Amino acid sequence: MSFDDRGMTALASLPSPVEEVRDERLARHGVHLRLKRDDLISAEVPGTKWRKLRYNLQAAQAQGATRLLTFGGAYSNHLRATAAAGRRLGLGTVGVIRGEEHLPLNDSLAYAAGCGMTLSYLDRATYRRKAEPGVLAALLRRFGPCYVLPEGGSNALAVRGTAELVGEISAEFDVICCATGTGGTLAGIAAGLSGPHRAIGFAVLKGGRFLVDEVRRLQCAAYGKATTNWSLDLDFSFGGYAKRRPELDDFIDDFRDRHGITLDWVYEAKMLYGLFSRVEAGAFEPGTRIVAVLS
């Protein structure tokens, strides 16, 4: 029996809907926007997190794994999603978190712990070396055999999962945008495009230029080659990962009031703030049709 049969597919409502956004700030520039509502795939394992986990969980089963070990920051949606999937599928989960423990736990980590995830912490210097064999071996000695997922769940299998998102969009579009934290979603979406379509990732962390090489690496790992139909916007991190400023909060409130959607401030809000800013600056020609992924 596969993990899908045991509940992974049951977690998802696919395809996620595509909704048109009518906003005069875009209309006056002749830009058309639709939202790919991957945030509605699952309450437990939302959006591209589900897509990234799906094939990894199948691989974990094939290897006979009973426990997942993965990495993330204190506000990681990936940790939440992995914990929820593990609970649903009867898998143990370990979340290795960047930095020191802070109590009480924030909502993301409290949810993960409530799903049965064991939380562990690495100082920032060691965390930067988390992929090194010595660091990883020490974690596996402590927690036992585990199927290891990288930070954000971004690996070749995740890229293949997120690439499937593109085929669900029946509406015509020119550009597709997503928030970018580890590069997996952007790598997959760009790989799934054909023709003149292009993808734009909005980096949600400061100093994200390294993600350019990471997206290429992930595409090569998944498909043997990198594409050139994407770009990365580095100007809307608002100071760094899981950091926010009043203008971002104001945008979230305004978007909720206009469109009835409360944006996640760690990822989605930064992407849409950046997109609206680029539209206002004239970065898109009149008539451009954009799809933005909410995850």
Structure notes:
This protein has 295 residues and is an alpha/beta fold. It has two domains: 4-43 and 155-294, Rossmann fold (3-Layer(aba) Sandwich); 47-153, Rossmann fold (3-Layer(aba) Sandwich), CATH 3.40.50.1100. It has twelve helices and ten strands. It has helices spanning 4-8, 24-27, 47-62, 77-89, 107-114, 124-127, 133-143, 156-163, 184-192, 210-223, 246-259, 268-280, and strands spanning 18-21, 32-37, 67-72, 92-98, 118-122, 147-148, 175-180, 198-203, 230-233, 289-294. The strands form two sheets. It has a six-stranded mixed beta sheet. Strands 5-4-3-6 form a four-stranded parallel beta sheet. Helix 10 (210-223) links the parallel strand 8 (198-203) and strand 9 (230-233). Helix 8 packs across helix 10 (210-223) and helix 9 crosses helix 10 (210-223). The protein is globular. The model has no long low-confidence stretch (mean pLDDT 94).
